[in-house]
Design brief:
Blueprint: H1 8-18, H2 26-38, H3 44-97, H4 107-121, H5 124-127, H6 155-158, H7 160-174, H8 176-183, E1 194-195, E2 201-202, H9 217-234, H10 242-274, H11 276-287, H12 290-308, H13 311-328, H14 334-348, H15 353-363, H16 369-398
Antiparallel strand pairs: 1-2
Length: 399
């Protein structure tokens, strides 16, 4: 985005708010599966339905805000048809596919929307250069990068790893017969029963939280990453030190995030197994009503994402608490609470310090994080209020 003339600060803001809707079910729904492992969810269909409905809010809002950043309300007016069409594909597609296959519920609509975007670009409305470009505050030609030499590859060759990911995941995870066969291979270690001095007891498990590696999203992401590295290397798209930079990025970002998630998983299991989560939940239930708690769940999701820079970590951190509160509070249902939690955690990523700093360092504007947060905080505030209000409405409607 910086290369095409977008101001660096706004080039960071746009992806931060634009990707927020995809955090829960993006990356083949890793955050959703981690949430399921953190807290037992009996009514998965309702939880998925409510979650996708709430995530539709930041999706539409982000599209409108990007148009506003481009040319204020004139930009919103000009971009509104495209935003509505893309949001219908994103939100509606995810809503539908979560009921069929959560792992593909974000990837497939996002891919379809990308194709529709090319079609929209051929429409007369968007084919010609916008008259608003001359008055736009988002563009700054002096930041435009000079043309660079790249390996000559076609668009289809460049997108080949995404094609492979689409085909492999649709076949392996989307066809029930194949999925059922692969899902048979699973393993979970046995755990004995335990009880605390205060009488809290945990039942024994023959196979605790069994892992099915052949149907896990991470396997297919890893395989496609290997394919992509070999594919791009074959066409000479890597420089001599590219793999060194990739390894540095993995150890600098992925390892730290993985250790953090592992730590939160261990902490939540200790708190849950020792009864600490239940005690906290009982205290919350005494001072809060169901409607209030549903609204607070989205705020807790935002705070968790701000603390951990991860939708997954936020869900893993707070979902066991939500489960315990639901058990101790009358007229409170887990689907609405988990939906509010994960929607809040999704939009909270837009203000997560690690994500903001990663964006500013990539765009070459380190030190301008406050300017980025000025926009993302506004987005998160509006989206958080709307998500909380919608979550309370879903709670009241289901009561």
């Amino acid at each position: 985005m910086v290369g095409i003339g977008v101001k660096p600060v706004l080039a960071v803001v746009i992806p931060l708010i634009g990707h927020s809707w995809a955090n829960t079910f993006g990356t083949l729904a890793v955050a959703w599966f981690a949430t399921k492992n953190a807290v037992p969810i009996e009514n998965e269909a309702a939880t998925l339905l409510f979650s996708s409905l709430l995530l539709w809010i930041p999706n539409l809002l982000a599209g409108l805000m990007i148009c506003w950043l481009y040319a204020k309300w004139k930009g919103v007016k000009e971009g509104l048809p495209a935003v509505l069409i893309i949001s219908l594909i994103h939100g509606g597609g995810q809503l539908l596919l979560t009921q069929i296959n959560p792992a593909l519920s974000n990837f497939v609509p996002a891919t379809l929307a990308l194709g529709v975007l090319f079609l929209l670009a051929r429409m007369k409305t968007y084919q010609n250069k916008s008259e608003l470009e001359t008055s736009s505050d988002i563009l700054d030609e002096k930041h435009s990068s000079a043309p660079q030499e790249h390996a000559h590859v076609s668009l289809h060759k460049a997108f080949m790893p995404y094609y492979v990911l689409t085909v492999v995941t649709v076949i392996m995870l989307g066809i029930p017969a194949i999925y059922d066969v692969l899902h048979q291979f699973e393993y979970g270690p046995p755990f004995p029963a335990a009880h605390t001095g205060h009488g809290f007891q945990v039942d024994a498990e023959e196979s605790y939280s069994p892992l099915s590696p052949l149907t896990h999203s991470g396997l297919y992401l890893f395989v496609v990453c290997l394919f992509a590295s070999l594919w791009y290397k074959h066409f000479g798209m890597y420089k001599e030190n590219s793999f060194k930079k990739i390894r540095k990025g993995v150890f600098g970002n992925a390892v730290g995030a993985s250790l953090a998630i592992t730590g939160f998983l261990v902490m939540t299991e200790i708190m849950s197994g020792s009864g600490q989560t239940t005690i906290v939940a009982m205290g919350i239930a005494e001072i809060s009503g169901p409607g209030v708690y549903v609204a607070l769940s989205s705020l807790m999701g935002i705070i968790g994402a701000f603390m951990t820079s991860s939708n997954t970590s936020s869900n893993v951190l707070f979902s066991p608490l939500h489960g315990s509160v639901v058990q101790t509070m009358d007229h409170l249902e887990l689907p609405q609470v988990i939906a509010a939690q994960t929607a809040g955690a999704a939009i909270g990523n837009a203000i997560a310090p690690a994500n903001v700093m990663l964006g500013t360092s990539t765009a070459g504007v380190s030190g301008k994080e406050p300017e980025v947060l000025k926009y993302t905080l506004f987005f998160v505030s509006i989206a958080g209020i709307l998500v909380a209000a919608a979550a309370v409405f879903l709670h009241l409607a289901a009561a």
